[in-house]
Amino acid sequence: MIVLGYIGNHASDDIAARIGWAAVRAAQKGATWRRVTHVEAVLAGTGRHCAIGSSSLRDGGVRIKPDANLTPANWVAVNVPHWDTEAAIDWFTAHSGEPYDTRGALATVLWFLPHHRGSWFCNEAVAAAHGVIDPHRLTPAAFFALALSQPGARICTAEFFAVDEPGAPRLTLQKGLALA
Questions:
Q1: Which class for 165: exposed (0-12), middle (13-18), buried (19 or more C-beta within 10 A)?
Q2: CATH level 3 topology of 2-176
Q3: Is 24's pLDDT higher than 90?
């Protein structure tokens, strides 16, 4: 399973979103991965065009993007070999459309806020898809560090984006989702 961490500058976002992302980076503990403001699970494919799953405020909650157009400079990829892609596809399919958990995301740094069951923020969804206990307690940076701490996990950004060749074969997800 490949997990992606967004490290881009959010330059295309409006000012309110950029302030929000800056606040996420400022509030996260740990110097190594505090630039990670969003995470995605790669469900099929590699490179710029792959199927990804997460939860996004912008997209209205839990979703699968069957053909995401990724900018390589904005992402760090981690291979977590023992996390099961098929189980993640099943989880995202079962939870698709469930709302984004704004309060839960804030609760990762504001301990007094309660988690909202039945809604998900990005790394909470990706972690839950892999059976992580209490995923709502993790910030994107903490989740990314946890993923890298798994046995055999390694950064694979260069390899992940290097296979983005013209004419690559069309990949299909289970449940009928296809990459364009």
A1: exposed
A2: endopeptidase fold (from Nostoc punctiforme) (3.90.1720)
A3: no
